[in-house]
Structure formats: structure tokens, C-alpha cells
Amino acid sequence: MDQIHHFLHRHHLMLTGEEEVKDGVVCSGCHKGLPGPIYGCSDCKFYLHKSCADLPQEIQNFFHPCPLFLTIRSYSYKCNACFEDGSGFSYRCTRCDFDMHVKCAQRPTIKSEGEELIHHFTHWHPLTLVEQKKDIEVLCRICEKLCSGSSNYSAYGCEKCNFFLHNSCMINIPRQISHFFHPSCPLILLTYGRYRCRGCAEESSGLAFSCGKCDFQLDVKCALLPTVESKGANKIQHFAHQHPLALRENMEFGSEVWCRACGDNCLGPCFGCGRCFFFLHTSCASEIPQEIHYPFHPLHPLYLSPLLPDPAHPTFWCPACCGRHDRFLLVYRCAKSITTLNYFRGPEYRQSHFQG
Ligand SMILES: [Zn+2]
Ligand SMILES: [Zn+2]
Ligand SMILES: [Zn+2]
Ligand SMILES: [Zn+2]
Ligand SMILES: [Zn+2]
Ligand SMILES: [Zn+2]
Ligand SMILES: [Zn+2]
Ligand SMILES: [Zn+2]
């Protein structure tokens, strides 16, 4: 065929033999010149090597859960597999803002020789079985516990990157989660050179649960925090707040600390986010319902909103208190209408309005 229609260009492309290609013509995909026959649209100065034109439009790679589409990027990008710069061709997932060099996407996966050497989506390089007797002290990138030496659990690692994982952690880590820290989008496990965790606000590198569309990254530690039901945890995730809550020790925030659920002073044990000055009694944290049915709003349930009430927001008016709302307290919202409700002070008052 001398003329083709290609998904990367809107006009037909004509085949030109190697000997007829003009000097200075480079492939719009791989940015390299000759040799080889080339498909071209001379009006647009758009050219593709025959071999580049034959690349599949859509591929699946072990390192990314979504399909990747061959794209020509107009700006340089960083390959999310090898972390080197790229330009022109990229196998790309737009939703995750994930790019991969063609050569990285084409890298052959190693033939597994027994269970010693494996490919896993948490790391770009092959992982080798860690010898238990080896005298190295390394931490698992998922659970942050010791991977070697005294540990009885088998582990895999890439020594060059100092990246190690317990076999069990590797098997159990989900590739995609939904998390109320970022409720609007699914979060996908990806690898980053450097990022700031939106949970704990600390700098991190390596694995992150990520939403590319919103540029939102959560480190594994924050994403998999225990909930208030797990007894004895000193850091939890709670649906009432979009950051981790730490058990408050030794009154480091003073005594002027108030519970966002009941409004009372937090003198006893409480969970808190120091950045937002958000605190909950430990008892309130375990008792406050996530969902309520309000008799005067019978059509939909109301959900506890992890967003702090915005004092300037005109729709924030509590119909149950007839406007006596308290902007400091947590609110329940209806997802389908603008109804917003305070969580009331005093259990008797609460009882009379809600059926939990
Ligand atoms: Zn090319
Ligand atoms: Zn054209
Ligand atoms: Zn690459
Ligand atoms: Zn993706
Ligand atoms: Zn590595
Ligand atoms: Zn998002
Ligand atoms: Zn309280
Ligand atoms: Zn916070």
C-alpha cells in the first residue's frame, strides 16, 4: 500500500522509498532521521517511519493498570517508568497523566526462572528474592517494617533502588482504591520521583495512590491508615476529616481545643489534625454516624461532610436549628440537594432529631 490512513494524522500519508526521502526529514514520532521508508504528509510536514507507523495504537503494560495509547506529545515529558525525559512518541494514559517511552513499553519482560526474579507493578525493575541470611537491614516500602535479617517473611527487592517489599504486602496491595480524602476520583497506585502527600503533607518518593487529573497523591502509609474501629491505633483515617488524625498526647495544642462533633472542650483523649486545628473526642470519633436520616428531609440520607463548613457559603443554614447553626461544628449534607445540618450538641437533643 502506497497510501495509508493513520490514527495519528488527519490526512492520508504517502509512502516514500528510502532513496527518495529528502534530506532533513525526521520522523514526527521518534524524532530520528533515516534510514528506512517513510510515510508522509508533505503539506503538514508530518512523517512517520514505516516501522513507527506500525506501532500499535493501544497497548497494555504490566506497569500501568489502564490501557496506554500512542500519542505524539508536543512538549517534552518525563517517562513514568525510567524517569528519563522523552519527546514525540509516548504511550500515554491521559486520565492518570502517565507517559511511557516506546522503548520502555517494548522492553521485554524477563523470563521467570523459578520464583527468584519477578516483575511487579510496584517497581519498574525486576525484583529479586531477598536472601534471608543476608546481613542487610531494609524496610518494606508498603508496611515500613523490617524485610530481612530476623524477619521470617519472604521479601523481594531491587538493590539498586533500595526498594524492598514483603511478599505478602506485594500480593495484598490494591492497584486502585477509592478514598474519602479524595472522594471524587479513584486513586491508582503509581511510582513518582518526588511528590508531596496530600494526607500528611510530607515529601515522599516512590509509591503513591494518585489521581492524575487532579494532581493528587497520597502515600501508602496515609492511604492505608486504620480506622477508629481498630483499637489502640495512634493514627487513624476518619470520614469526618480529609487528613490523618493522630491521637493527641501531652496536650501539645494546649487546653483551648474543642471537639468538632459535640463542641465540648477536649481535655481527655482525642484525635486531631494539627494543621487544620481539627479535633474529635475519641468517644465522639467512634460514635458519630457517617450517615443519618433526618425526619424533615425524608427523601435522601444525609452524609457527614469531611469539608469544614465555609462561613461564607450562603447555602449553609441548618434547618433543624432554624438557623442557630454553629460554623465550627461538623455538618451533614444531602448529596442531592443543598440541605446542610449541624451535628447537635447534647445527646438528648440529637436523639430527638435524628434516627442514627
Ligand atoms: Zn520513527
Ligand atoms: Zn497532513
Ligand atoms: Zn522510559
Ligand atoms: Zn491510567
Ligand atoms: Zn529498581
Ligand atoms: Zn481527582
Ligand atoms: Zn466530642
Ligand atoms: Zn486537617
UniProtKB/TrEMBL annotation:
Q: Name one GO molecular function term.
A: zinc ion binding
Which species?
A: Durio zibethinus (Durian)
A matching Pfam family: C1_2
Read off the PROSITE patterns from this record. ZF_DAG_PE_2
List each copy of the Phorbol-ester/DAG-type domain by range. Answer: 118-185
Name the keywords, alphabetized.
Answer: Metal-binding, Repeat, Zinc, Zinc-finger
**Full protein name:** Uncharacterized protein LOC111276969
PANTHER family the record matches: CYSTEINE_HISTIDINE-RICH C1 DOMAIN FAMILY PROTEIN, PHORBOL-ESTER/DAG-TYPE DOMAIN-CONTAINING PROTEIN
